[in-house]
Amino acid sequence: MTVTRYIPSYLTSRQNLTRLVLWTALYAWLFITIYQPFNSRQWMPAMNELQYFISGTFVVLIAMAVIAVSRIIMHYYCKKHAMSYMIYAFWVVCEIAAMSLVYAVVPIIVNPESANRFLSTWGNAALYSFFILLIPYAIVILALILLHYREQLDAMEAKKNGLDEDLSNPLPDMFNFYDEKNELKLSLRPDTLYYMEAADNYVQIHYTGQGKLQHYMLRTTLRDIEEKFQNVGLRRTHRSYIVNFSRVKLLKRSNDGLMIDFDIAGIPNIPVSKTYMDAVMEQLATPRTPDDETLYKLFK
């Protein structure tokens, strides 16, 4: 059976996508205007240095606009869906194709007689764009991964030295849930919240009230909840679930993989997918309750 692997969620956060667009644009601008790749200076021998500089800047602005629009769409797509590496690669190919299409159409608008060279222009533009963007994409993504792991190491070191005051408080007094319009819809004590489940454009919140398990449909996304409640005992265990680990009774291995069992009856076992396995184990590595410590010792 083929296992689908998904890109880390932090790579599609708004902040990191903005970093990718800006750094890629800066690299491409310096590369085109200073290095002048692919003998591009010989394509326009009649241009002086200033005209070539302006043309190169215009080319980069087009690329930046296409990438920015693409990454905005990616950000909102990933708020509702997990993105596999295959989809991400296809997305980048579509970015380059769209960018190259603009480069092929602009000359026709300026000089309609160049329409007979449309396909060759589009192909060359796609090839050159690929080689120009390959290096900054790789460098920025690698830098974001290293930055993410550096932040994790710093957080672990802070926990080890007892400097992380936020994590010294196991849970907030209340979990306040807001909808997509930022209106407060539900407040729960931490000991009543169990897990949250994706349901199309809604999130179903499962909690206890009046002595029984209850549910509340909130119009938002798991991604928004995940970002809001970082480092307070809530962890995403699957593309469709976020779990309150203070209510977890045990982890157990089955034929379907690692499953989460809660401390009351009537709640189905929640799966832990391979994508979020490291995050779950990290949660157990920083026990907030005696039960968490027991779980960590069992599965570390």
Number of strands: 10
Q: What is the straight-line distance between the termini?
A: 26 Å
Number of domains: 2
**Order of strands, widest sheet:** 5-4-3-7-6
What is the overall pLDDT average?
A: 77
Number of helices: 9
Give the low-confidence spans: 163-169, 287-300
Task: Bin the strand percentage.
Answer: 15-25%
State the order of secondary-structure elements, H for helix, E for strand: HHHHHHEEEEEHEEEEEHH
> Could you tell me the radius of gyration in angstroms?
25 Å
The largest pleated sheet is described as: 5 strands, antiparallel
Structural class: alpha+beta
What is the general shape? elongated
The helicity comes to: 40-55%
What are its keywords?
300 residues, OB fold (Dihydrolipoamide Acetyltransferase, E2P), 9 helices, elongated
